[in-house]
Every structure is written in structure tokens, then in C-alpha cells.
Amino acid sequence: MQNITEYISQHKKRFVEELINLLKIPSISADNAYSKDVLRTAASVKDALEKAGCDVVEIHETEGYPIVYGEKIINETLPTVLVYGHYDVQPPDPLDLWNSPPFEPVIQKTDLHPEGAIFARGACDDKGQMYMHVKALELMVETGRLPCNVKFMIEGEEEVGSNNLAIYVAENREKLSNDIILISDTGMIANDIPSITTGLRGLSYVEVEVTGPNRDLHSGLYGGAVANPINILTKMIAGLHDENNRITIPGFYDNVEELSTGERAEMAKAPFSLEAYKKALDIDAVYGEKGYTTNERNAIRPTLDVNGIWGGYTGEGAKTVIASKAFAKISMRLVPNQDWKEITTLFKNHFENSAPEGVKVKVTPHHGGQGYVTPIDTIGYKAASKAYETTFGKKPIPQRSGGSIPIVSLFEQELGSKTILMGFGLDSDAIHSPNEHFGVWNYLKGIETIPYFYQYFTEMNS
Q: Same structural domain for residues 78 and 164?
């Protein structure tokens, strides 16, 4: 039986080249102009799963983009691991902030990635991390190390809310039946400080529209006489937080989980340099809810942020108008016990009712999902912890993430399975931002670590 590290060393160049080819395809699910590219990516994932060793690979159509399903069942009596990932990516805008074209991957060395990092949209979120699992399967099949059954469910709509995934899961419970779900769409503290994500925040995403006059108006002839939707919108948004940066929506905090002093103390053990954090972001101060640390604010506390705002004239030069309409997109990150649909309703009622006379306000919900917590006393977590310890030489730290993967709670509801989040990216990898990247070392370390999870999970279930 060939050694894991020997196999990776032998095929390292090919592993990287295959990922680069996948990253070249602009699978932007949010923009219909790229629909053919999204479909092309699904076909590429199907081909990769077949070559990796899956005995069955299918492309399942949905009302949106397809889901790629694959499986290798070696013995029905053995445990089954279901791997979830996504092949769609965020839009790359703003393009002028990229140091290299987002869909022309390049490998460059950085301070945190001295062995080089692949710069491209989707490098870390989630093509690179998803593809680790494909290559890990190849490794296990080719070296005779696959100890249990494996299934893959790779979707193309994660970045737009996974609207069709819930339908697919509900209609395919038997096909997707499993003992544990494995996802790599998160990160770790540092390359020398492995961690496992044990908590995710939920999400509520809405768009708001403020309408004033029935057309754009001359700001000289009408200024001061009619409500300006842009002015009104900015005031309404400003009113969503108080002087302590707490969200002012009535009922918003009713079900917020308050961690104990002991739990907060455990979180504080994770290495963190506030000065390094500020330097990395080129800011002179942090900002957030009073009474909580930076790591608590972005992991265990709910938030409300404006993700985009527009209206009126934004072209070159001047055009003195009072816009008829103003818009904003707003996301709320939620903690366990906050129901995203309830929060969406609370926001809608509050925002629409807080509008002054002279304007009309419309709130359109887009998508959302529940928060999630993985207990650290489960077999799945223990197997993952032992896998990291084997390849990193130290136990990983359990860590809650500020991000959201709404489908995780859906999986437990529909399939009755716990999810293990084995991420290998870093917070500095700029996911969703210009110059997204993923360390070559991290990519290969994931391929090395994942097979040990399969081994230990199978052993612990025997």
C-alpha cells in the first residue's frame, strides 16, 4: 500500500494543474450571462469524479443549476460519508482591484503562503476546497485506502442561496442517506494552528427599495420641497443601530444564545493579535457591538450590514437630480436559536413601518438559513480531530465561524446527519473579495488529511 505523502508528492503537479483548469471556468451563478460556464463546470466536476473512482456519477437537473451526484459503495454494511461542496463562485467585481484576472489563475508567493498560493475567483471558496475531496478519493482508491462508502453532492447555487437544494434533498433522502456529512467550505486559524469549525451563523438577506416622486427631479427646482429617497434611505439605515452598535429592530435579540463566561474564556484561548488584525485590513481601530471582543463579534453575535447601496446618478461628471428611487441590499448574520424567517419578518415590519411620509418602502426577502452548532463529543468530530492531529502534529482548536452555510441545518433536518466542517483556508485568503487565493500547501494538506478522517471514522464506528 503506497504511502499517502508519497502519492501526493508523485501527483502534486497534476493536482494543482487540474484545479487551475477548473478555476479558469467563470461559474458565476448570480449572473445569467455565465450560465453556459456554470453548466460547463458541472460537467467538469462530473468528469473529475468519474476519473477519481466513483462508480456512479450523475448530473441531476433542478429548476436552476444542476447538482452533481457521485458515489462509490464498497460495502453496504460499512459507514457512508456524504461530501458536500459547490462549484459556483461569487462575481469577481470590482475587477480593477484584482492584481491578476480573476479567471486566469496564477501562483504567487505571499508572507502566509511561502510555497505559493493560487490566485483566482473560487480558489478557496469553494472549488479548491471541494476539489480536495475529489483528489482525496482518488488517493484512497489508487492506494487501496478507502475504508468505507462515499457519496458526493456538489451543487451550483450555493452563492445564490441554494434555493433548489432543499427540494433535491427532500426528494432524494434514500439516495443521500449517510452516517456523516463532510464539508470543506470554512477555514482554520493558521497553517501551524489547525482548527475545526463547530458553529456557523445563520443568514437573512433582503433588498430594500425606497420610492419618492414618480420620476427623477431637478434638484434645484424641487430640492427641499419633496422627500429625497436617497437621503431617507441613508437615515433609515443609520437608525438600524444604536450608539452601542446594537441592532434596534424590536425582538431581534429575543432568542439570541448568550454564551457563558466559561465558554467565552475557551474562545479567548485561540491565538489572536488585534494589532496584526488591524494591520492586515489597514485600519486604525476595530468597530462593533459594545461589550464583546472582535472574535466574539464576528462569531457568536448577530450582525446587520449593508452590502450595497445605489440610486440617482453615479456616472462621470455631474447630474443634479433627486432620484425617484433608492435601493440597498442588507444581510443579517444570525446566531443559533434565531430563526431566519422570523428575523426577516421582524426586519420587514420594522423597516417598512419606520418610513416617513412622502416615500413608499418595499422590502424583498432573498434567501437565508439557520445557524448551526456541531457538538465536539461526537464520533465525527473526534475522527476529524484525530485526522488533523495526525497530519499537523497537534490537536485542532474547536472554533465558531462568523460565516454561514445555510444548508447545514437543512441536512440535519432532512437527512438526520451531523456535519463536520473541515476547512483548510485562512481568513486572509480574501474569499468574496478581489485577489481571492488558496495556498498550494493548504490544498495539498487537505488532500493528505481527509483520508485519515475516513480511516478514523470507520474505525470508531466498528
A: yes
Q: How far apart are CA 417 and CA 406, in angstroms?
A: 15
CATH at 194: 3.40.630.10
Report whether pLDDT(406) > 90.
Answer: no
Residue at 277: amino acid letter:
Y
All residues at 6 or more sequence positions from 113 whose CB lies less than 8 Å from its CB, including other chains: 437, 439, 440, 441, 442
Instruction: Write out pLDDT tens, residues 279-330.
Output: 989 999 999 999 999 999 999 999 999 999 999 999 999 999 999 999 999 9
What is residue 260's predicted lDDT score, i.e. its pLDDT? 84
The range of the structural domain enclosing residue 333 comes to 203-256+302-369
Question: Would you say residue 275 lies in a domain?
Answer: no
Read off the pTM: 0.82
CA–CA distance, 458 with 462 (Å, rounded to integer): 6
Asked, for residue 277, whether it belongs to a domain, the answer is no
| DSSP structure string for 325-389 | EEEEEEEEEE-TT--HHHHHHHHHHHHHHTPPTT-EEEEEEEEEE--EE--TTSHHHHHHHHHHH
CATH number at 245 reads 3.30.70.360
Give the C-alpha separation, 161 to 116, whole Å: 32
Residue 387 within a domain: yes
